[in-house]
Every structure is written in C-alpha cells, then in structure tokens.
Amino acid sequence: MKNNSYRQKYLGRYGLIMLLALISAFVPLSMDMYLPALPGMATVFDVPVSLVNLTLILFFVFFAAGILIWGPLSDKYGRKPILLTGLAIYLTASILCALSTDIYQLIVFRTLQAIGGSAASAVATAIVKDVYHSRDRERILAIVQSMVMIAPAVAPVIGAFILSFISWRGVFWTLAIIGFIAFAGSVAYTETIPRRNDVSIPGSLGRLWVVLKNPGFTSLLALFSMTSISMMAFVASSSYVYQVEFGTTEQVYSYYFALNGIGLILGPMIYVRLSARFDRNSIVKACFALIAISGVLVFFLGSLSPIIFALCILPATVASVCSRPPGTSMMLEQQTGDTGSASSLMGCAQTVMGTTGMLLISFDWGTGIIPTVGAIIAMIGVITSAGWLYLSGKPFIKKSDGDAR
C-alpha cells in the first residue's frame, strides 16, 4: 500500500494517517465548533447577524485564496516547510481570535486563521498522492475522510459544551490547542515529496493554469466540487433551522447536527464496502441521484419537525461524502505531476462552491429557509447526475483499473 521510499521514522504508518486526517479537518473544525454560538454572538457584539456571518463567509474566501498559493509552493519547497508555516499562522490567529474585543477584530483574525489553515488542507491531499497509489489511494482517502468527518459530527457538540461553561472565546482557545497538536505532529513528519520543482515562485504559481488546461481534471473538478454547495447551504443554515425555526436549544441543536455528522463519518466507509462489489461509475451515479431525492424530501417534508428534517437531509449527506473518495482519486489520476497545484485547485473549488452555497442560503427567496435548503440540494443532485452521465463516457477522462471492475 505504502510507498516505502517515504517511511515515517517518527509518525509511522498509522501516525501519518492520523496527521492527514487532522490537517484535512481544519475547515469543519474551524467552522462547526462555533456554529452554536453564532445566534448569540450577534447579541454579544450588538451587531447584525449578517456581520457575524462574515466571520464564516470571509473565512471561506481567504481559505480558497490561500490554498491556491500554498499548494504550488509545496511543489517547490516541499510539503513540510509549507505545513509548518501555515500551522504557525493558524495557531497564532486562533489565539488572536480568542482575544478579540469587537467583531471587526474577529473578522480580521478569522481571515488569518483561514490563510494558515489553508496550507494544511493543500498539503494533505498532496501527501496522499505522494505516498499512496491506485486503489490503495481510494481506500486511504476513504479512511482519512471518514476520520475527518468526525469533526463535523462532534465539533458542534463540543462547541455547545464549551458554551455551557464559558463564552465563545473558549472555542477559539480549543482551536489553538488543536493547531498546536497539528504543529507538533508536523514537526515529526518526514518529507514525502518525490521531486521538487526548480522553477521560480511565479512559475510555481503558474502551474495552476497548466493543471487547469487538462480537460479531464478540470471537468471532474467542476462536477465533484458542486456537492459542496448543497452541504454548506445546510451547514450555514443549520443553527437557524433548528434554533430559530424549530426553537431548539443550543445543546439539542448540536445533537441533531451530530446525527447528520454520523452520515458524514459513514459515507466514505460505505464507498469502500460498495467498491468491492460495484464499479465506480455506478456508485457515483447512485450518489448523485440520492442527493436529488433527498432534496425533494426536505422541500416537501422537512418543515414538519426537526427529526423529520434531519432524516430527510441525511441521505444527501451520506451520498455527498460517499462520492468524494472516488472523485478525489479520479482527479489525482488525471495528473502525473504538479500534485500540489492539483491539490490546491481541488481544495479551492470545494471552498468556493461551499461559499456559494452559504451565499445562496442567505438570500430571501420567499419560500422559507427549509424549502430553500431542499430546493438547493435537489438542484445540485440533478445537475451532478446529468454532468456525470455526460462525462463518464468521454475519452479525455483517464480511467484506472478500478473502472474496469
């Protein structure tokens, strides 16, 4: 499974997987842990909810921008120096967030947190490509992503628990501790890049365009990143759906969110089981169709009760993350080099699409927040299903041995 050229002297095989899971989880950890505090933060700072939401939206914007820079630089300087630099920025920014005295300071420090965290996410996928190959890569991606998805499941519960004892500042102190643990693990990490680029910094950044000119990579990138629209539309609206629409407490909201998180954890592992019996094409097709069906259920039934809403949206959650290991692996298969640049584009596209979902759900469509969530999910399911039917047979999409099963 593992490329023995890159043995981890200090981390070992499983330590590397744990580190990959942790540094891949900076987005859900940095966002979901303080979701329960969002409605109350507007009152604490005496500002509109829209201003508080900027701490989410700008986090994603700067995360997307940062990830485009760090990935190509990791191809030039190596994974470890970039990882350590980004995590140092993240750790410092988390502490500054905890010390913020007004909403504007918090917004600025959240952008720094996003820039630092983006380095970790950019490097994580590149390390997977460095070390693992073919079907083994899909399995490792599924394992890492399942571990990563524990973060959205437990983060709101932890956040609500922290809020029951101390203020929202405790959330950011917790993130600072997590950042320190990741930094320590990165110090122990042994470099895995097989060969560094010897081009200039502008030349390294220019490799992004080279990768984008690959039609196989770019078309799959556009398709698979669209599921982030529906997922983030739900995540961004979830605290308002449960606490405002259904009137639940912060703690009860965290339990419903944790139920959704179970789907996030199981999705990648379900793919591993299914891939042993079914071909990749059929699994992806079924996942996209299930997203559309789930969206329809949310639209028509989601407003009945919080448990019905949670159960209706659960299939979309499972299907979205179930499609990620094959999607990520297929995109990496399209590239023989420029792994850091490809990893950056993948992370950026998911973040941009996620931000798009957050923006879409913030508009007043005149139908109510729950039907709007359902409509967005159903729309994404239909578009991705049609896109996959179109792309799966195209000759410019490189196929792996797994496609022939």
Automatic annotation (TrEMBL):
<feature type="transmembrane region" description="Helical">
    <location>
        <begin position="82"/>
        <end position="101"/>
    </location>
</feature>
<feature type="transmembrane region" description="Helical">
    <location>
        <begin position="12"/>
        <end position="31"/>
    </location>
</feature>
<feature type="transmembrane region" description="Helical">
    <location>
        <begin position="253"/>
        <end position="271"/>
    </location>
</feature>
<feature type="transmembrane region" description="Helical">
    <location>
        <begin position="140"/>
        <end position="166"/>
    </location>
</feature>
<feature type="transmembrane region" description="Helical">
    <location>
        <begin position="51"/>
        <end position="70"/>
    </location>
</feature>
<comment type="similarity">
    <text>Belongs to the major facilitator superfamily. Bcr/CmlA family.</text>
</comment>
<keyword id="KW-1003">Cell membrane</keyword>
<dbReference type="Pfam" id="PF07690">
    <property type="entry name" value="MFS_1"/>
</dbReference>
<dbReference type="InterPro" id="IPR011701">
    <property type="entry name" value="MFS"/>
</dbReference>
<keyword id="KW-0813">Transport</keyword>
<feature type="transmembrane region" description="Helical">
    <location>
        <begin position="369"/>
        <end position="391"/>
    </location>
</feature>
<keyword id="KW-1133">Transmembrane helix</keyword>
<dbReference type="InterPro" id="IPR036259">
    <property type="entry name" value="MFS_trans_sf"/>
</dbReference>
<feature type="transmembrane region" description="Helical">
    <location>
        <begin position="283"/>
        <end position="301"/>
    </location>
</feature>
<protein>
    <submittedName>
        <fullName>Permease (Major facilitator superfamily)</fullName>
    </submittedName>
</protein>
<feature type="transmembrane region" description="Helical">
    <location>
        <begin position="107"/>
        <end position="128"/>
    </location>
</feature>
<dbReference type="GO" id="GO:1990961">
    <property type="term" value="P:xenobiotic detoxification by transmembrane export across the plasma membrane"/>
</dbReference>
<feature type="domain" description="Major facilitator superfamily (MFS) profile">
    <location>
        <begin position="16"/>
        <end position="405"/>
    </location>
</feature>
<feature type="transmembrane region" description="Helical">
    <location>
        <begin position="217"/>
        <end position="241"/>
    </location>
</feature>
<dbReference type="GO" id="GO:0005886">
    <property type="term" value="C:plasma membrane"/>
</dbReference>
<dbReference type="InterPro" id="IPR020846">
    <property type="entry name" value="MFS_dom"/>
</dbReference>
<dbReference type="InterPro" id="IPR004812">
    <property type="entry name" value="Efflux_drug-R_Bcr/CmlA"/>
</dbReference>
<keyword id="KW-0472">Membrane</keyword>
<feature type="transmembrane region" description="Helical">
    <location>
        <begin position="172"/>
        <end position="190"/>
    </location>
</feature>
<dbReference type="GO" id="GO:0042910">
    <property type="term" value="F:xenobiotic transmembrane transporter activity"/>
</dbReference>
<keyword id="KW-0812">Transmembrane</keyword>
